[in-house]
Amino acid sequence: MLFRQLFDRESSTYTYLIADRAAAEAILVDPVLEQVERDLKLLQELGLTLRYCLETHVHADHVTGAAQLRSQTGCLSVVPNQASVACADRFIQDGEMLHVGGVEVQAIATPGHTDSHMAYLVGGTHLLTGDALLIRGCGRTDFQSGNAETLFDSVTQRLFTLPEATLIYPAHDYRGQTVSSVAEEKRWNPRFVGRSRDEFRQFMNELNLPDPQKMMEALPANERCGQTLAIVANTYSI
């Protein structure tokens, strides 16, 4: 399995490239619009055909590169079941598998940050947690139908029950951390360690965080697979 972690500095977003070298097929998870040319160049250099653009959820802090990547490669845009993305090619459900060659990607429903969030277990060892579980943190729960109690259940009953050696790769990190493990987060994540479900709900409900800087742009664009209004206008003019 080929596994690469790619970074967008402006939004502190990690995009993941997963591929089977023998089959020369790839998946990009949570691509960022401003990094599409970087991703296409890397795919070309590695001789990979992009089969899927896969989203963990409808993002509020960056615009997905899925529409442009689909236009330029013919890949399929895949989003979690029940996400409000009418233009997606495919909706993925809890427990469903995607394959690129011999590499398996299993969807694990982890609602709470949003109501249709998915984590993805790659090859049984690498867990892409999206915004549900960050390194020593977790995603917020105060918009996009988020729910703190649901997130607590998703993390403690689904992600923390995976083997402790499972590697954790989040959608964001703001302190330069790139990877953790189930064992580490069960021991050191301050959002969850020593908190009951009710204590977690109270803590999350009192965060009072500002809205993401790109929220007003990103949410409507991502409901169109990442097509911004300018791109849509240009498309229609052609």
Structure description:
The protein is α/β, with parallel strands linked by helices and 238 residues long. The protein has 7 helices and 12 strands. It has helices at residues 36-46, 66-73, 148-159, 182-188, 197-205, 215-222, 229-237; strands at 2-8, 13-20, 25-29, 49-54, 76-80, 90-92, 97-100, 103-109, 118-122, 126-130, 167-170, 180-181. It has a 6-stranded mixed β-sheet with strand order 1-2-3-4-5-6, with helices on one face. A hairpin with an 8-residue loop joins β8 and β9 (118-122). α3 (148-159) packs across α5 (197-205). The chain is globular. The N and C termini lie far apart (40 Å). Mean pLDDT is 94; it is low at 231-238.
Could you outline the blueprint of secondary structure elements for this entry?
Blueprint: E1 2-8, E2 13-20, E3 25-29, H1 36-46, E4 49-54, H2 66-73, E5 76-80, E6 90-92, E7 97-100, E8 103-109, E9 118-122, E10 126-130, H3 148-159, E11 167-170, E12 180-181, H4 182-188, H5 197-205, H6 215-222, H7 229-237
Parallel strand pairs: 3-4, 4-5, 5-6, 10-11
Antiparallel strand pairs: 1-2, 2-3, 7-8, 8-9, 9-10, 11-12
Helix pairs in contact: 3-5
Low-confidence stretches: 231-238
Shape call = globular
**Average pLDDT reading:** 94
What oligomeric arrangement do these chains adopt?
A: single chain
Backbone structural class: alpha/beta
- Strand order across the biggest sheet? 1-2-3-4-5-6
Give a short account of the largest sheet: 6 strands, mixed
Counting DSSP E segments of at least 2 residues, the number of strands comes to 12
How far apart are the first and last residues' alpha carbons, in Å? 40 Å
Helix count equals 7
What is the H/E order?
Answer: EEEHEHEEEEEEHEEHHHH
Radius of gyration: 17 Å
The helicity comes to 25-40%
